[in-house]
Design goal:
Length: 462
Amino acid sequence: MGANLARNAARKGFKVSVYNRRSERTEKLLAEHGDEGVLQGSTDLEAFVQSIARPRPIVIMVKAGKPVDEVMEELIPYLDEGDILIDAGNSLFTDTERRSAEMAQKGLRFFGMGVSGGEEGALLGPSIMPSGDKDAWARIEPFVMKMAAQVDGEPCAAYIGPGGSGHYVKMVHNGIEYADMQLIAEAYDIMRGVHGISAGEIAEIFKGWQKGPLDSYLIDITVEVLSKVDTKSNKPLVDMIVDEAEQKGTGRWTAQSALELGVPITAITEAVYARGLSSRRSQRDEASRLFKVETKPPFKASAAELADLHAALYASKIVAYAQGFEQLAVASNTYGWDLDLGTLAKIWRGGCIIRAAFLDRIREMYAKEAPANMLFGPYFADAMQESLSAWRRTVARAIESGTPVPAFSSCLAYFDGLRRARGPANLLQGLRDYFGAHTYRRLDKEGSFHTRWSQDGSEIDA
Ligand code: 6PG
């Protein structure tokens, strides 16, 4: 990805210096792509730093975690006051905050820069989420804005805020990516498990969904992945891929942060759990032998059932994004970042993995109003209302056939929990008060109260 970012900048007319610890990588890049612009390679770190005009913006693209600190330690002795290190990996936002503070103490500047779009995006135009010293932004802005994907003539990049806010935003982007992918995988599983449809036919169904409200990069690549035939077995390649999902951590971090902030992001968290469960290979094998469960056998899908599934996928997707945006709003208030949610929807319209037509609807909504929950925006409220019955039927069919749909069903449960003015938490409060005297509030008067449940049953003003 680092090489592709360098090529992207060179192609846009910027002079780029490149350095890799393994000098053969630098040589290969220059040999294969040196003619794409002004790309200058160094085999020596000091020479690399000296080749850059001051104040030097230096992009670091290495694995998140310790490698970032190691590269920074190597670079810092050669830097001059005001130079700017830019970490373009998927770093944990708290690491970025720490690194920013450490750099500031040395008179140096630091940017955490979320970059989404994979290898191809890095080359052709990613979505870029930079944060850090505002006074360093002017130095970085021209190349960030030009390297980013462009949608309707606008760059898919913007200054996000101070400290680790850019990496936080990128982290939630990835969390939403997890949820979106899990929902697509569940739709695929419903077509397999509930309706017995083959991978090739499922690809055709997704193809029919490419245009319309689900229009997105992830649906496009779903069609490609499901259509691919394995040359060795002559079967759909997807049928030959081991069903254990790996993860590098950004989805888990999103869920951890949401738990700390108290934001219910059920879709993202269920997507992380689903990956965890998928990797419990031996337990799954044992359970599949042990539990012979009675379920409804697969039945041929009618057009109406597929229309229900489409509606259920769309409604669940809206909930997943609404939850992600709420997390961003709460994090922004908690950490004082002043995030502009409309801008985030705007810069995710192109370049990134979750790019989708749908993000334009989110951007439009935030341009007019900032409801407490994205679901309250008129466009989304109507979509939820229209999809609700189809969504329930789809989840019910999946449950009857024994097809697990944790993201579909948790999104529906979240929606049902949200739309009820009165839920069952009154009983939770009663139980908490019973065993721990934690007190409760009453509907009919102000204050906190405790009942002496197991003593004389009287209520006291707490
Ligand atoms: C992106 C991707 C990118 C990476 C994910 C994969 O926005 O370009 O999200 O950052 O592909 O981190 O994450 P997992 O390995 O955890 O699925």
